[in-house]
Amino acid sequence: MRRILALVLAAAGLSGCLGLVGVVRGAGEFRVERPALDLLRAPHPQTHVPEPLQRAATLRSFWGEPEVRERLAGGLERWTWATGLRLHGVALLLGVVPVPLLVPTGRHRVHVLVEHGRPVAAWGTANTTLARAGCALGLPPGRGAAGCRWEGRSAPPAVVERRGLRLWEEPPRRAP
Fold first, then answer.
1. Smallest Cα–Cα separation from 113: which of 176, 171, 56?
2. In three state form, how does the secondary structure of the chain look?
3. Closest CA to 119 of 174, 172, 173, 166
4. Mean pLDDT for the chain?
5. CA distance linking residue 137 with residue 148, whole number of Å
6. CA gap 35, 65 in Å, rounded
7. CB of 55 within 8 A of CB of 77?
8. How far, in Å, CA of 96 to CA of 11, rounded?
9. pLDDT tens, 67-78?
10. CB of 100 within 8 A of CB of 88?
11. Rounded to the nearest 5°, which phi and psi values hold at 119?
12. What's the pLDDT score for residue 41?
């Protein structure tokens, strides 16, 4: 009995969590109205790509050629990349053992609207949490969180990170 208890506590200490938690995963849509580009491995977080590189050509050099490139009216183009697997299902934490019951149901896509060689908007889908419920104890006791909670749908991030480049929503500029 002591060995089993020691094993459970050791496993909980390694994972940092002990409890019964369920997470329902699905896909959500995002939209970026003012896209900005950042380097993921920059010396400071959210270091902007210099202005001359805030171009659609930078997306191609980091992400590769788009799978689909459509010409639209008014000199606009829509570029589309597949960004990862779309997963639906449930992930459970039973004691200290994570049990993913997730099924791939397709691929996520990111669409970038390009005007005069610059990205002007982006949209697509991303994995997101549809619901989360359970009781857990974060370890070590006293420093970790403990409790029971229910959370509803979370918004998918309006950020696409891929191959060293981040496309995200630039905050509105303040008037001087």
1. 56
2. CHHHHHHHHHHHHHHCEEEEEEEEEEEEEEEECCEEEEECCCCCCCCECCHHHCCHHHHHHHHCCCCEEEECHHHEEEEEEEEEEEEEEEEEEEECEEEEEEEEEEEEEEEEEEECCEEEEEEEEEEEEEEEEEEEEECCCCCCCEEEEEECCCCCCCEEEECCEEEEECCCCCCC
3. 166
4. 76
5. 9
6. 19
7. no
8. 6
9. 999 999 988 999
10. no
11. -70, 130
12. 59
Give the bridge partners for 148, in sequence order: 135
Place of tokens 């008014």: 74
Q: Look up residue 116 and give its two tokens.
A: 């005069």
pLDDT digits (tens, 9 = 90+) for 17-59: 667 778 888 888 888 888 878 776 554 555 555 665 678 888 8
Q: Which is it for strands 35-39 and 68-71: parallel, antiparallel or unpaired?
A: unpaired
Residue pair 47/37 in contact by the 8 Å Cβ criterion: no
Tokens for 54, please give them.
Answer: 């805030």
Contacts for 107 with CB less than 8 Å, ≥ 6 apart: 82, 83, 84, 85, 86
Question: What tokens were used for 83?
Answer: 């960004």
Measured torsion, CA atoms of residues 30, 32, 36, 40, in degrees rounded to the nearest 10: 0
